[in-house]
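Reading a protein record of the kind used here takes only a little practice. Think of the row as the fold of the chain written in a discrete alphabet. With that in mind, consider the following protein and its fold in token form:
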Amino acid sequence: MTWSGLNWNGVPYEWMAVYFGGYFNGHYTTTYWPSPNTKLSSGGPTLAQVFLSGGNPLDSSTWLQTVLTRTAQGVFLGWNTQPGATYQVQVTTNLTTWSNLGLPRFAAGGSDSIYVGGSSAGYYRVVLLR
């Protein structure tokens, strides 16, 4: 989707208006919009994180959630997806420099997983590309 360029501390006005209203007489009003840094639930993502991951701030089942699972074959990173979206898994050992792990992954269904190795050492994140 293409945005106008107007943003609410990094979140496009159009996206905010879809979920929280605020488009009147050809102008946006931010009167009732929560801050992008607002946590949507205790321990949950911020409004900005839900936007960046392609979720719906009003439906927690669409919020990106990851899980590491140890199996007999090794450790797998799993996450819920939005069908039709493309994701990139990244890895780091220092939370500063991130590297792509494998190729971008197209979501055909509601979940995906990727083998991340024989141990759970390191940190992983899933980034929505489009």
